[in-house]
Amino acid sequence: MAVKRFYPAKSNAGIPAIRDATRNRLVGIIFVDKEKPEGAEKIVQICCEALNAENSKYTTGSKEGDEHE
Q1: What pLDDT score was predicted for residue 1?
Q2: What is the CA radius of gyration of the chain?
Q3: Could you tell me which of 12, 9, 3, 11 has the C-alpha nearest to residue 52?
Q4: CA nearest to 52, candidates 23, 18, 24, 25
Q5: Which of 6, 20, 22, 30 is placed for a possible disulfide with 51 were both Cys, Cβ 3.0 to 4.6 Å?
Q6: What is the pLDDT along the chain (69 residues), one digit of tens a residue?
Q7: Helices in the chain by DSSP H: which ranges?
Q8: For residues 45 and 52, what is the distance between their CA atoms, to the nearest angstrom?
């Protein structure tokens, strides 16, 4: 299994975020809805899965990823 590039993290202020392991920086944050605070963590998970799936197209050399070059 390939190492995942994007993973859930927290900003210095404690805001749910997405970290790029390749560049070692935050690439996105999701603000917490006070009425449904657990939603932000779930959205971060979904976004990380989607970003890693898209990234794998470029790193594995699949034809689908090649058309974006």
Answers
A1: 55
A2: 14
A3: 3
A4: 18
A5: 6
A6: 567 999 999 999 999 999 999 999 999 999 999 999 999 999 999 999 999 999 988 876 655 544 444
A7: 38-60, 63-66
A8: 11
